[in-house]
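Batch queue: ligand-bound targets. Current item pairs a single chain with adenosine-5'-triphosphate. No template structures supplied; prediction is de novo from sequence plus SMILES. Inputs echoed for audit trail.
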Amino acid sequence: MGEMWAKPGSLVAGAMFLWVMFQQYTPHQFRSYIEKYSQKLVSFVYPYIQITFQEFSEDRFKRSEAYVAIENYLSVNASTRAKRLKADVIKDSQSLVLSMDDREEVTDEFKGVKLWWASHKNPPKTQTFSFYPAADEKRFYKLTFHKNHREMFVGSYLNHVMKEGKAIEVRNRQRKLYTNNPSDKWHGYRRTLWSHVAFEHPARFETLAMEPKKKEEIVNDLTIFSRRKEYYSKIGKAWKRGYLLYGPPGTGKSTMIAAMANLLDYDIYDLELTSVKSNTELRMLLIETRNKSIIVIEDIDCSLDLTGQRKKKKETNEEEKKDPIRKMEKEGESKESKVTLSGLLNVIDGLWSTCGEERLIIFTTNYVEKLDPALIRRGRMDKHIELSYCCFEAFKVLAKNYLDLDSHHLFASIRRLLEETNMTPADVAENLMPKSVTGDPGTTCLESLIQALETAKEEARVKAEKEAKEKEEEEERLKGEKEGKEKEATAGEVKEKEASGEKEKQNGVAVKENGVV
Ligand SMILES: Nc1ncnc2c1ncn2[C@@H]1O[C@H](COP(=O)(O)OP(=O)(O)OP(=O)(O)O)[C@@H](O)[C@H]1O
Ligand SMILES: [Mg+2]
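Prediction returned. Tokens below.
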């Protein structure tokens, strides 16, 4: 037995020795010449063609669409044949999707001809002992087929894979809510710019409390937008639309965004601008977003000093200089984010905004008047939607949602009170939430709402009175100050006149004394 293995063993060792000698001592030109012809010889003997599909291209900006399509295609067409599989939960966290694991190979058939798919992973160049894959690890798929069928595979088969893969992606699509990672986490394991969770918000336009006419207008606007691919290309505009939602806190801005995503079946990218350090980072984040999505910047007035960055920075006043906490905050602010207004405008509206299509960009704010007009001009923010205090129509939607009531004898008083006072839909909704399981929830909740409205009305009256009084006092004070100044001025004038009269008199006496009359 030992003798049987000794011969091939020494043959292998001899071949390896010769190979090393060849590599070390043959001149470079000669070596490449030999390599070229040996490859020709191999291709003559080995009649297969291989195509590689990398997960990321060289610049690593974006996951390759071809790779993703192949991954989806193989998840359906290969998962019954592969032996090692990866599982992922999709679609409302209910169904499991299987895909090929790394370094697995499967066969596929197209028009009766066999071909092979293999998933590979390039080992990292730098060796680290870590639980997670290294940063320079690269995944790719390799397709192998016989060279006789080159035309068919390169043409129709690959088209078929791309089409199928994209269709599977749409079918399996679990909508996601993304948030941007800080840039120091953009390296290493999986290099993701965005983290996500499954998006399962129950908000719908039917349950959104607002004037029916306004609601219908928004729904129509969104529906038309989502069907207008050809129209946008005809008029030469990127297929995107900007919405500005503004209004006091608790009037349903965030709820409306969720309802929009549910209506159009889009993903949401919740962009936290304060953790984006520069305009370049902002652009990279945008490139990584996918089509059919809503990019949201909430409370845009708080995210950046977008109103002041164009102007010269305000001088810090003396008090701020002395206050160490305020000083630290200021320093932190200047280090935190260098995203500028022009950077943001470029992303919404400039050349970079055209990468990707079918996207909504939404800003929300409580203080629309604070924003730079350039940011919200039409074309950038195409539609401005004001979400305001609860009107009677909006209340009726909430009463239907929360209490299943279409009418009630207390509705009349609520209508009057809502006209007389301001209450946000969030506060109305809170009062309409049944707090007890016994009794008639409808009447109890409506009564509690009436009480809350009356309290709010009384508070508003007291506040208005206080403000009027303060205003009156301020006016009195200003008037007093003005009068005081006027009095001082007249007294000054009188004194001056008296002084000049005195002088003239003295001059007269002096002239008389000198006898020049
Ligand atoms: N128009 C509305 N229709 C239905 N529910 C609403 C409406 N407005 C507010 N709500 C309710 O009030 C809660 C708060 O609303 P939401 O978070 O949408 O307000 P917002 O305008 O985004 O406030 P903020 O400016 O503070 O972010 C929601 O959970 C929702 O249940
Ligand atoms: Mg909100």
